[in-house]
Write a structure and sequence with these properties.
Oligomer: single chain
Helix content: 25-40%
Largest sheet: 7 strands, mixed
Number of domains: 2
Shape: globular
Length: about 350
Amino acid sequence: MAITGPSIIETPQSAQVLSLSSRAFKMAYPEVLHQESITSDALGRMQPTWNTPDFPERQVTVSILNEVYVAQEGLVFDAHGNLFASSVTQHEPDKIALGFNSVLKALRSGCEMYCKRTAVLCKKRGADNYGHWLMEMLPKAYLSRLFLDHGDLDYLVSYNKSSLRTVIQDSLAMLDITRRRTLETGFEAVKVQSLVLFDGLTNHGVYMSPIVMDCIESVSARVQAKPSSKVFVTRESQSTRRLVDEAPIQELARMRGYEIVDPGSLTFSEQISVFKSAKHVVGVMGAGMTNIALAPRHCRVTVLAPAGMPDTFFWFMAGLKGQRYEEIRCGQAENGGSRPDADRDIFIRHHDIENLFDAEL
């Protein structure tokens, strides 16, 4: 007999322990060069958000759920295998099914890991991505430290084999959260005695609360900025979404006073130091460009974006920081193979390159 999916349930009102007011804010429609080249699917997914000039005040709620299970990238189930709706964050149906099956197995046979303390859920879909960690997961740890933590909380994060693991540890340390209080978990179900669950802080592609910037300012304050700089963010070391024929573009950037930066090769503190005083940041849409959140107000941000990539993440960040945001939609290489449009290498048109870097800044 096939196993059906979990029942979806709402977080009970009785579990709520805190409600935070997230201020209203305004957003301007982005300055997009070559918007006509954006695929209809990508544009259709971005336009409703881009066309929203006013984001009203809303509440961010914090609840504590008892005797629950966490599986996959932050899916939360109760002791009967029901799935809490607020923990579903862009999870595909197959990931939900895997999480559900893992929880059913744990309910039958027990869990290898059981957290007998109260833990904050700092894990969601995209847990292996620097940008998602910095803007959507770390702020939950920050707010918990600010309002709930009396030295008795643990922090549940995703186990990561890449350099992101060190970034997670270092950024938590900037919030005075030690490794001893950090629980690294994989995809298998973990039982948690009491779990702190946030709702309403972000909705990827649709909403980002200004509260997340309070967290960014807090960690940024721990690091001294380098002298004011202009930055070109490279993705040369990545396997996807690279800039075709990047060498001459880098050379032009250097000639005009830009520092070439591969964020993945830097520590978290070094990334803060580089971007904290940046006057202009240029780079291909991707995790490394999340560092614009560390850059100051009025910084100019130029994002090189694939024509087929639907993304409002960086637009939100720049808008909340009061930065000048612009996108250049680029052509996509034909050598993508089976890659989705968003992951294919891109090329910038020759007549756009000359205006890419500002020698006068």
